Amino acid sequence: MHRVTLRYWAGARAAAGVETEQVQASSLAEALEAVKAARPGDAEFARVLDVCSLLRDRRTVPRAALAEPLDADAELELLPPFAGG
């Protein structure tokens, strides 16, 4: 198990109610499931997480790669879709 720090941006931060949080997980998928499980019944939070772009070490993480085992602690940034810019 590794420490995963989730950093929320914009609408993801509003849905989470916090800027960052940490969980212990063996994969990024497990980390996302842990933060969803911590908010049972919060369908809006789960919906926002499901549409976020994900970055680890400033690189996009494809959804298909989320289940890969972690080999170290990680920071995952969650960026919701936005208009403009």
Automatic annotation (TrEMBL):
Protein name, as recorded: MoaD/ThiS family protein
Pfam families assigned: ThiS (PF02597)
InterPro entries: Beta-grasp_dom_sf, Mopterin_synth/thiamin_S_b, ThiS/MoaD-like
The species this protein was found in: Auraticoccus cholistanensis
Lineage start: Bacteria, Bacillati, Actinomycetota, Actinomycetes, Propionibacteriales
